[in-house]
Amino acid sequence: MKSLATSIFAFALAATPALSLVLVCPEYIPAGFLDPFTATAPALNGTYLLVSGAVGVLVAGQVRGAFTYGSDSPLGLWGAGPTANGCPGYAYLNAVSRTAAYSVLTWNATSTANWEAATGGYLTKLGAPPSSDFLACKKLNSTTSYDLFLVTASPLPVSLETAEGDIISSADCVSIKILVTHAPGI
Fold first, then answer.
1. Confidence of residue 16 (pLDDT cuts 50, 70, 90)
2. How confident is the model at residue 2 (pLDDT cuts 50, 70, 90)?
3. What value does the mean pLDDT take over residues 100-111?
């Protein structure tokens, strides 16, 4: 009897696939709150950081969003498009270098950047080099949204390549900072 039980146990172990970690995604998107990331330039009053496709943009009007952010941490947004860790609709804001002078902002499934996003301060990408200086450039074929670039050095080139591959003149852009107006969930 003992050998039959041992055989059954050995067969059960052999038939069981290797242990794998199963990620459980939230069943709902957290309730949103008013977008806390606003442009500081007078010409762009009433514009806020958001996502268009997988690109970081400024849009006119304050919308609700379920952002996650803090001090020296990734900046995330529920409903931003790509998936993170297999969970639908969550993405992180990243700065993707185009040249030594500037980076484009994208929303991706994994975080490659940490941000300082303290209430009352300016949104700052940490790391080398840290920066809180942005350029907002009118998106091609749009009247209400702006491509965002993180300025990392000067001088800026005459032409900038957007995250979508469009070429625009840096002379047509506005220098801004992005103010963090309130803490998450408020």
1. very low
2. very low
3. 93
Find out whether 67 and 115 touch, Cβ atoms under 8 Å: no
Structure tokens at 53: 């496709």
What is the distance, to the nearest Å, from the Cα of residue 88 to the centroid of all Cα atoms in its chain?
A: 14
Beta strands at 115-116 and 124-125: parallel, antiparallel or unpaired = antiparallel
pLDDT beyond 50 at 12? no
E runs forming strands in the chain: 33-34, 37-39, 47-52, 55-60, 64-68, 76-78, 90-97, 102-108, 115-116, 124-125, 134-138, 145-151, 159-161, 167-169, 173-176, 178-180
Least Cα distance to 178 among 126, 134, 114, 119 occurs for 134
Q: Which residue has the tokens 């902002």?
A: 105
Helices (H), the chain: 2-15
Predicted model pTM: 0.80
| 71 Rama class: left (phi>0) / alpha (psi -120 to 50) / beta | beta
